[in-house]
């Protein structure tokens, strides 16, 4: 019995409007094909104590129109960039995505191609990923890049394990100032491999990596030193060459994490002797999308040992046997777990192909000059916001005496409000404030991380400053 508009009927009679296999004859045929007499047999391995013994409290079946109306009502509760200015970054940043990026990635030949397991019939997506790799190499000044990871955190975890395999050492030094989720992911990667994660302190005045603490902690057990530039709090590391030299003197690998947008104006990691570069590709033409999917960047020097240990896909360019045509193929995929099982260097055997394509389109559209201009605009707006917020009573900014890019920490000296209450009051003014850092960095006091990009107008930054004055002054 088909019930397009809902209704109460016996369970055995229900043919679900949206599940073709709920038709009794179809279900019976499927069960006969796999050799079972009841659906319960599919769950025989699940202990009885874990099975739900009661009916789910679900509404009656509804028509497509009713379901759509219900979902739209739920979605209407969301607030997006279109509804309010957002000054929240911390790993997923509000940037402008040109219309041409969406137009290309939504073409069916790209949108429906998952990953090129059959290279001979996947030349389009293979070429697109090859172009992505080439642009990432140019951007980071590295020589080899894979065709993407899941996100910055997974790229960092893989880079740490790469370094451990190559050096046969067990310690990874990381900065104290790091996103807690990135740290948690790194720890998840490290523990099964027997790796030790050791934080390096930051200079209390500049917020940058404490070189003396690095020298005290680095040893012949150190597989890699990892830094971020800009850091999680938006600081630009100014002693990267010194860190690289200290790392290489101990025969460890130097891993650098980047926000790729910053490389339009900052020296790329390859120019200060990084061995492996990781980062987050979301700013390169990918929408925030409620926090995902994301795009992990991973690149390294052109050294055989490094390349052989790199996880994920690497797309290569070749020619036909008579050299008449150019072709693209997957290289070095023997490292993957679907081929080598437990001998694989990583359990990642896929990529974020569509996000990588979006980044390739974005980078090709901007070009070196456009990326430089974008970086300059972001620096200008960051500086303007910092100067404006510094004028507000009970606000301390900047906390650290360092150059900043896109983000900076703001300290609130208001005694009668928590950071959560400040952000809730900003929402009442139609503004999404910064990320609460109180639990991650209690030593900084009541602080939040604010983000400023090319999409934030002067009027919006002025509006933020006025709203903070009202909130901290007791106005609702």
Order of SSEs: HHHHHEHEHEHEHEEEHEEHHEEHEEH
Shape: globular
Mean pLDDT: 91
Radius of gyration: 26 Å
Strand % is 5-15%
The CATH superfamily name of the largest domain is Type I PLP-dependent aspartate aminotransferase-like (Major domain)
Q: Give the % helix.
A: 25-40%
Largest sheet: 7 strands, mixed
Q: What is the distance, rounded to the nearest whole angstrom, between the alpha carbons of the first and last residues? A: 56 Å
- Class of the largest domain in CATH? Alpha Beta
- In the CATH hierarchy, the third-tier topology of the largest domain is known as Aspartate Aminotransferase, domain 2
What's the number of extended β-strand segments? 13
Explain the overall architecture:
The protein has 476 residues and is α/β, with parallel strands linked by helices. Helices cover 35% and strands 13% of the residues. The chain has helices at 24-34, 64-75, 99-105, 108-111, 123-140, 152-167, 180-190, 211-217, 240-249, 304-309, 337-340, 353-389, 419-428, 458-472, and strands at residues 144-145, 171-175, 196-200, 222-228, 253-258, 276-280, 296-300, 314-319, 326-331, 395-396, 407-412, 435-436, 447-451. Strands 1-7-6-5-4-2-3 form a 7-stranded mixed beta sheet, with helices on both faces. It has a 4-stranded antiparallel beta sheet with strand order 10-11-13-12, covered by helices on one side. A two-stranded antiparallel sheet has the order 8-9. The protein is built from 14 helices and 13 strands. Helix 5 (123-140) packs parallel to helix 12 (353-389) and helix 12 packs across helix 14. The radius of gyration is 26 Å and the shape is globular. The protein folds into 3 domains: 11-75, no CATH class; 99-363, Type I PLP-dependent aspartate aminotransferase-like (Major domain) (Aspartate Aminotransferase, domain 2); 368-472, Aspartate Aminotransferase, domain 1, CATH 3.90.1150.10.
């Amino acid at each position: 019995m088909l019930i397009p508009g809902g209704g109460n009927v016996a369970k055995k009679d229900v043919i679900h409007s949206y599940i073709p296999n709920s038709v009794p004859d179809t279900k019976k045929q499927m069960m006969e094909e796999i050799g079972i007499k009841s659906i319960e047999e599919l769950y025989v391995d699940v202990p009885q104590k874990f099975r739900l013994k009661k009916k789910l409290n679900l509404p009656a079946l509804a028509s497509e129109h009713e379901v759509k109306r219900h979902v739209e009502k739920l979605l209407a509760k969301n607030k997006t960039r279109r509804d309010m200015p957002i000054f929240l970054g911390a790993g997923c940043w509000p940037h402008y995505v040109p219309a041409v990026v969406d137009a290309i990635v939504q073409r069916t030949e790209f949108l429906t191609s998952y990953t090129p397991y059959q290279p001979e019939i996947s030349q389009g997506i293979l070429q697109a990923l090859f172009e992505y790799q080439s642009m990432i190499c140019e951007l980071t000044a590295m020589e080899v890049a894979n065709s993407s990871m899941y996100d910055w955190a997974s790229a960092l975890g893989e880079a740490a394990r790469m370094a451990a395999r190559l050096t046969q050492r067990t310690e990874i030094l990381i900065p104290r100032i790091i996103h807690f989720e990135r740290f948690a992911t790194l720890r998840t990667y490290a523990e099964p491999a027997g790796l030790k994660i050791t934080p390096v302190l930051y200079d209390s005045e500049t917020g940058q990596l404490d070189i003396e603490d690095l020298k005290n902690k680095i040893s012949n057990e150190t597989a890699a030193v990892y830094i971020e530039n800009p850091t999680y709090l938006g600081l630009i590391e100014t002693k990267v060459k010194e860190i690289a030299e200290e790392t290489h003197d101990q025969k460890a690998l130097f891993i650098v994490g980047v926000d790729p947008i910053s490389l339009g104006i900052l020296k790329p990691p390859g120019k200060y002797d990084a061995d492996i570069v990781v980062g987050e590709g979301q700013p390169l033409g990918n929408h925030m999308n409620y926090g995902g999917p994301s795009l992990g960047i991973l690149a390294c020097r052109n050294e055989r040992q490094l390349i052989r240990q790199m996880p994920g896909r690497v797309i290569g360019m070749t020619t036909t046997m008579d050299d008449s045509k150019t072709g693209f193929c997957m290289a070095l995929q023997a490292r993957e777990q679907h081929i080598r099982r437990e001998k694989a260097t990583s359990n990642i055997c896929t990529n974020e192909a569509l996000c990588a394509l979006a980044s390739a389109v974005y980078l090709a559209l901007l070009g070196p000059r456009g990326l430089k201009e974008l970086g300059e605009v972001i620096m200008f707006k960051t500086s303007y916001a910092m100067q404006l917020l510094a004028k507000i009573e009970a606000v301390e900014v900047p906390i650290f005496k360092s150059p900043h890019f896109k983000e900076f920490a703001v300290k609130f000296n208001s005694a009668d409000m928590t950071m959560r209450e400040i952000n809730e009051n900003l929402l009442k003014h139609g503004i999404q404030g910064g990320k609460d850092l109180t639990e991650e960095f209690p030593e900084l006091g009541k602080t939040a991380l604010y983000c400023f990009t090319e999409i934030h107008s002067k009027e919006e930054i002025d509006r933020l400053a006025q709203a903070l004055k009202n909130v901290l002054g007791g106005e609702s």
